[in-house]
Structure formats: C-alpha cells, structure tokens
Amino acid sequence: MARVKGGKTSLKRRRNVLKMVKGYRFARSKKERAAKEAIVHAGAYAFAHRRDKKNDFRRLWTVRINAGLEGINGEFSYSKFIGALNKKGVLVNRKMLAELAEKSPETFARLVSKVS
After folding, report:
1. Which end of the chain has the least Cβ crowding within 10 Å, N or C?
2. What's the half-sphere exposure (Cβ side, CA atoms, 13 Å) at 34?
C-alpha cells in the first residue's frame, strides 16, 4: 500500500483551528494544541451561558414588572400580581408585561386596574 502524506489536510485543519481563535491572547491564538483546548472550553461556556441568559432575562423582567407595580400605587407585589393575573385568566407573558411597564406605564396601569 502506498504511503499517504497528509500535509494539505493537516495545514487546512490547523488553519481552520487558528482562524477560530482569532483575537484570543497569548499561546491560544498561535499554537494549535492550546487553540484546540481554548475552542473546547469556549464551546462549553457558550452552551452553559445560553441557558444562564434565559434566567438573567427572566430576573430582569421580574424587576421591571415589580418597579412598574410600585410606580402605580404599591397595592400589588410581583407575586400577588402574577397570581391575580392567573386567576383572572389574563394570558400575557412576563416579557410583554416588563415591556409594558417600561415603555407604556399607562397601559400597564390599566392592566393592573383590570386585575385588581
């Protein structure tokens, strides 16, 4: 069987790996082994942080809704408001509620008065 030289393939693989770590610091941007390690870690962090981002936004929406409720008359806390919404059968998600509380407080106030 003839010997196969993998020069082209190796160079292409190395080039692609180093292209992925462009902008990284020190050995991670220059040496193939360190670059591969950096790519693996970056992928793991990206996967985990995509999930964390969802939690971060939910916390942000909660804070905005609560601030909007305090601005109206202080009769509702966040949890009581959400409970009242569910009892009345109002189907507005937290993202939209937070947007209403921030961008159009008068509409949010009307929604709160409808629930109370």
Report:
1. N
2. 9
